[in-house]
Amino acid sequence: MTHFPKTDRNRLRRLPERALYDHQTIHAILDAALICHVAFVQDGRPFVIPTLHARDGDRLLLHGASSSRLIRHLQAGHEACIAITILDGIVLARSVFEHSINYRSAVLFAHGQPIHDEANKRHALQLFTEKLLPGRWQDARQPTADELKATGVVAMSIESATAKVRSGPPEDPAEDLHLPVWAGVLPLHLSYGQPQAAPDLAADLPLPDYLRQWMDRPGS
Ligand SMILES: Cc1cc2nc3c(=O)[nH]c(=O)nc-3n(C[C@H](O)[C@H](O)[C@H](O)COP(=O)(O)OP(=O)(O)OC[C@H]3O[C@@H](n4cnc5c(N)ncnc54)[C@H](O)[C@@H]3O)c2cc1C
Q1: Tag placement on the chain: N or C end, fewer CB within 10 Å?
Q2: What average pLDDT values come out for the chain (220 residues) when binned by 10 residues?
Q3: Residue with the nearest Cα to atom 36 of ligand 1?
Q4: What is the 152 CA–ligand 1 centroid distance (Å)?
């Protein structure tokens, strides 16, 4: 299966021409975003929690303190709705009405499955670490048994998903095109600053190659 089925729950009604349901697009959005927002209902009340994520095939992995309310709730098998948003630009139209934003977003529905065994937990932590900075897992000290115990991991099997993508210039109606108002797109992207060494770092430790290469790669 290469597409998530369109159902009553995930079928985009508003501007459906911006909807995409294929795994490739949705996975690419998950991989490009550093964080997601996880929404769930507990004791009849809604909560939304921002958190890091990593993808393992068709599953989205979340982690946190073993005692975290979010992690415990999802490990118990409850359902969540997860939103991922990447901002690509502010769309400045001639009219206030047509102002918009260029973005890639995804909304997923999934139930949690706990990951308790040490090998799978370790694998999940490797995916998280490598997502933050490729090359980091091998360099940093590996988790101890106690650290693994203190970390809760949950796999969210993606059951349903939709991507919504807006790109391109403003869509002013023809009658506004003559207006003397600047129109266009102000691109937005997340960028890296200069690495700042920890104040207690040994003075003779150079910047690792994988960090330099990550920062120097095209588009960063
Ligand atoms: C950064 C950003 C800013 C936005 N700003 C606005 C705004 O100011 N005003 C506004 O009206 N809308 C905005 N949107 C679009 C908004 O996310 C909704 O798509 C839109 O409001 C329609 O909501 P709805 O509940 O009527 O969607 P429906 O079409 O009824 O949604 C049906 C299903 O489609 C899926 N879906 C809906 N929206 C999205 C999405 N964005 N990404 C992936 N799947 C989705 C969900 O599964 C949902 O259950 C913004 C989107 C982004 C990413």
Answers
A1: N
A2: 93 93 97 97 98 97 96 97 98 98 98 96 97 97 96 97 98 98 96 94 95 85
A3: 12
A4: 31
